[in-house]
Structures are given as C-alpha cells and as structure tokens.
C-alpha cells in the first residue's frame, strides 16, 4: 500500500530495505503514538496492540480493529515495539524506556520521527545510552532499530513520564501535556479576566492539567459543577488530581471535543482552544471547539474564551451567538464573552 504519511513512508522503507524484517504471525507487537492513519501491512491488527493517549486517534484505531490501550502495559511482553517518538525530550525518553521494559530479549525496538520533530537526535540519544543501533532515513524522517540484549536504557528515563508537582504552579503535571512545565500566557490572561458571576454547571473545554479549571473553582463560588474535557487521557488524570479536593464539583472526561462533547444544557463554558494539529496550525480545530461549545450551552448560556488575535474567530462567534463582547484585546490575545 502506498503511503502519504511521512512516518509510514519511512517505516515502509525500513521494512523494504531490510533495516528490520517482518514479524512472524505468532509474534506480539506494541505500537506507541500512532493515529488512525495506519494499515495492516505495517501493523497487523491480529498481533498489534496500540498505545494512544488521544481520544480521536484511539477511536479511529479501534474502528480499524486494533486493540488500544491508554498506557504502556507493564504486565505484558512483546517481540517488537514501534514508537513514534514525540519531540519533547523527557516524553521521548520515557516512551523509549517504557517500550524497552516490555520488549522480550532478542526482540527489537524501532523508533521513528520526523527530522524536525526530534528524529535527528534519535540516533544520538540511543547511542549515548550505550545501545548498539542501526538506522536509516526516508521522507525527512529518521528510523532507528535496536535489538534488546543485556544492555538496559538509563533507569531514570522511566521516571520522566511520571506525574509531578510543578514548583511554580503547585499543580500535578507531566511531560507531553500542553504547557506542562509553565503557565500558558493565554490561560493566565483568561484567568485574570474571568467573570466573577459564573455559576451553575459549566465546562472547561480542553482543560489540560486543570490550570483554568482550578481558577474557576477557586474564584466562582456559585459554580456547582465543572466538567473538564480533554482529548489527552494524561491531562484528564492530572486535572482530576489537581481538583481532588473539590470532590463532585469537578468531573473529568476523556473526549475528542470536535467529534462532540457529550454535554448539553450547560450554564457556561471557559476555554483556551488549541489551534495546532501536530506541528501544523489549524484554524479549523478552534472553530470546531467553538461550534461544540455552542452545541453544549443552554439558551442564554455563556462562553468565555481566549484566542490568539490572528486566528480571526469573530465571524464564527457572530454567526453562532446572539451577543459577542470583547473583554480584552492586547498583544497577541483577544478574550471574548459570548451569549447563546
């Protein structure tokens, strides 16, 4: 099958060029970080378990017949582990170590990434860890293969994926989450302009580890329940930890919001919607968040959102909402308060 996805082009090249052989029908394969753009020639569904944190890709993989997990299993062994590694170094090292841990002796770990998304350093990272690698490149991606023997990856790599309390925010977070090691400027600005009269049942669309949710629950005493929605299962877990003291006032949901939030009749929604799909800027993603927010609100319900000024969401907001008020405009941000 001909692929257009550069990652799959690179893997197909690795298979055809004998960088790594096909796996046998009785083998067990673990694939980490791949979305629904895969096929049976590279990832035989009958023998492949997928690890995918993100709700949308996980749903697409299940529809293709794959077994999908939300984490790397610690209680299984695999003959091959294939990792589409992320750019962030701590997350990359964690996923490589987690894959290495469940790999059988004599099995192979295959790592692949675009050159401009961490692929160029895959080889050096693994060589510096004392591993004997073979590697190749195709479609501006790097593919590295390591056969497991008695050499282990550095022990601290596994800990790089752990949840930890960030010293600046005091909140639970982990590498790989949006703005995991800092306060996002847009979210901080929205916190400064939160309407004090938010009340009833609301939601934080794209809640991340819960920075904005925490502010809503702390500052708006009349909020009885806040739903935190995020596509990344790790973010939902972190937000739940950060709101643990609030009991039933907070409820986390692992949801692909553009596909539907599953909520209706809300009194308010707050959000700092994403506008990137991978490394590519996507205005459509923010527009989908706005549309789903409109769907989830009751009549006269309120949306409060921050967005980068250049994204030009005004037309979408004016089309969907009966009233649109600009609470703030300055620098690269705009904050809107909209009534359905």
TrEMBL record:
Protein name per UniProt: Methyltransferase small domain protein
**Residue ranges annotated for the Methyltransferase small domain, each copy included:** 171-337
Keywords on this record? Cytoplasm, Methyltransferase, rRNA processing, S-adenosyl-L-methionine, Transferase
One matching Pfam family is: MTS
This protein's record includes keyword rRNA processing: yes
The record's CDD domains line, in alphabetical order, gives:
AdoMet_MTases
Q: Which GO terms describe its molecular function?
A: nucleic acid binding; rRNA (guanine-N2-)-methyltransferase activity
Q: Does Methyltransferase count among this protein's keywords?
A: yes
Source organism, top-level taxon? Bacteria
Occurrences of domain Methyltransferase small N-terminal (ranges):
66-133
Native source organism of the sequence: Micavibrio aeruginosavorus (strain ARL-13)
């Amino acid at each position: 099958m001909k692929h257009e996805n550069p990652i799959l082009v690179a893997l197909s090249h690795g298979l055809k060029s004998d960088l790594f052989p096909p796996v046998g029908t009785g083998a067990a394969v673990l694939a980490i970080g791949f979305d629904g753009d895969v096929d049976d020639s590279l990832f035989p569904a009958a023998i492949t378990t997928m690890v995918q944190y993100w709700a949308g890709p996980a749903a697409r993989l299940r529809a293709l017949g794959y077994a999908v997990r939300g984490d790397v299993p610690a209680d299984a062994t695999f003959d091959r582990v294939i990792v589409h590694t992320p750019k962030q170094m701590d997350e990359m090292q964690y996923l490589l170590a987690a894959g290495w841990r469940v790999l059988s002796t004599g099995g192979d770990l295959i790592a692949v990434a675009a050159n401009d998304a961490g692929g160029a350093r895959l080889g050096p990272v693994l060589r510096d860890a004392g591993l004997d690698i073979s590697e190749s490149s195709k479609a501006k991606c790097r593919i590295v293969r390591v056969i497991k023997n008695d050499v282990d990856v550095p022990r601290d790599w596994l800990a790089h994926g752990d949840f930890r309390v960030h010293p600046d925010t005091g909140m639970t977070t982990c590498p790989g989450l949006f703005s995991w090691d800092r306060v996002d400027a847009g979210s901080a600005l929205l916190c400064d302009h939160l309407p004090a009269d938010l009340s009833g049942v609301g939601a934080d669309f794209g809640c991340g580890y819960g920075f904005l949710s925490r502010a809503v629950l702390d500052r708006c005493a009349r909020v009885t329940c806040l739903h935190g929605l995020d596509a990344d299962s790790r973010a939902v877990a972190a937000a739940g930890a950060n709101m643990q003291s609030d009991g039933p006032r907070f409820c986390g949901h692992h949801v692909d919001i553009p596909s539907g939030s599953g909520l209706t009749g809300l009194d308010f929604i707050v959000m700092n919607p994403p506008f990137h799909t991978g490394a590519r800027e996507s205005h459509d993603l923010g527009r989908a968040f706005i549309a789903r927010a409109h769907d989830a609100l009751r009549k006269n319900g309120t949306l409060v959102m921050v967005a980068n000024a250049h994204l030009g969401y005004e037309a979408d907001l004016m089309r969907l909402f009966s009233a649109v008020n600009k609470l703030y405009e300055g620098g690269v941000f705009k904050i809107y308060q909209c009534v359905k």
